[in-house]
Amino acid sequence: MKSFSAMIKRWDIIVTLVLVLLSFLPAAVFSYQQAEKNGGFVKAQGEEPIYVAVISVNNKEVRRITLTGNTKNEVFDVFSSNDDYNTVEVRGEEIRIKGANCSDQVCVQFGFLSKPGETAVCLPHNFIIEIESIGGSVIEDEPIISS
Amino acid sequence: MTKNQRIVYIALLAAQAVIISILERAIPFPFAFAPGAKLGLANIITCMALYTLTVKDVTKVVLIRITLSALLGGNLSSFMYSASGAILSLLGMILVKQLGPSRISLIGVSVAGAIMHNVGQLLIASWIAQTWTVLLYLPVMSFIGILSGIAIGIIANYLLTHVEKLVYYRYLNE
């Protein structure tokens, strides 16, 4: 342990701190955008934003599920090709990838998603679940927002 | 170091790095909160190479490692990840090392490498998935990167000061 503290130099700490701060940059930009996007809606309609899970395969949207206020439980498979599937589970206001037959199983480790900006990605199948937040109004009336 | 010695040394380092990255695939990752995170043990070899070889030869070691480990049990998408991660992390480590040994130690170099590796992989992931919300995982990944980077810096420093040949090569390189 003595050699460890002797090894560390001042620039080690500076470089590490700068890189850690930079890694928060995307999160900061995202929450700024989110605040700007929702601000107008909430003021105009006085309602809470609604969270929607968007499921896309090969960059095409295949299904949207409104999570806010959802009480149903649902399990279904999404096929990205004839043999490749991801099993999606919706439990109340949360959604997760329950299982998949992909090679790395990383997508299953993401666990339940419920907040806007959270993402579960299965890269071998090019399968994504994203949570979007939409200013308070009924989903059917909203134009589909392609980001 | 004669030319042949150098070639054999590059080949040895690349071979070790390939074996380490294949072994690493067999280790299940213990932290459930960071999907896809890895220890990055192969970075030990890159750190050792950085301090004992020229920049050109280090690049050779890294390129050989990426290509071989993709051929031995990877697929195209995993090759793209490891390639972008490895190239960005190599660039970061070379840049940080320019500060000189009096200012920065192996720990800083390998932490920079680990974090840049995550940046590279997440950039490719967000490009393939066409959504940049993937980048929101960066803080979690860089936290793991700091821990594993420190450990790997210590290991590489231990090897560089205790293995006789490495000490000699490092002396030649400086």
Automatic annotation (TrEMBL), chain B:
The lineage of its organism: Bacteria, Bacillati, Bacillota, Bacilli, Bacillales. Pfam families: Hpre_diP_synt_I. The chain crosses the membrane at residues 7-27, 78-96, 108-129, 135-160. The keyword Membrane applies. This is Heptaprenyl diphosphate synthase. Keywords: Membrane, Transmembrane, Transmembrane helix. The keyword Glycoprotein does not apply. InterPro entries: Hpre_diP_synt_I, Hpre_diP_synth_I.
